[in-house]
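Onboarding guide, step 5: your first structure request.
Type a short instruction followed by the sequence, for example:

Predict the 3D structure of this protein.
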Amino acid sequence: MVTIGGTGVMLLAALASLVVFALIASGLSRRLGRVTAIALAGWAWTVVVLGILTLLPAQWGTGFVPAESRLGTCSMDYGGPAPDGFWILSGSQRMLNVAVFVPAGALWVLGVSRWRRGWLLAPAGLIGLGLYSVVIELLQLALARIDRACDITDVVDNVTGALMGGAIGVVLALVLRPWRHRRHDTAR
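The system replies with structure tokens like these:
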């Protein structure tokens, strides 16, 4: 049986995807402007990294986790038994769950602020990030092999991080003003 996972694999996958999205940002920057291109490619990269961090086993060689030893439903015990944290970011698991969604929220809001429809796209994207969190938790429940648990606390923490990031994105948009590059804008 082939097993994959562990923090080394997660970091390698995140770095490989960073190269891909940096090339995408470079290709889009002339058409969209540098701020918007970097923000949208960065947002896409953070969404991929969130999938990597949450859907790969945290430990190398987890192997098969028997169905009878895993939970059959999501834990609805808000604030329930969260581990002490992850070796990359000390502190609580809850703090990590908030922190990993902040960049996605910030980059999304900054990226769509270029367009007039940004005031509709920004909240829609933040709702989408909340739904992405729900999908991740449901996949963790369905995929016994990755040895992860579905928990409502994670969803609440992830949504909190996305909203905090959205607020940061508004501030960044006001400072960086990506709408200055509208001369090539076709999506008004």
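Each response can be followed by summary notes, for example: The chain has a mean pLDDT of 83.
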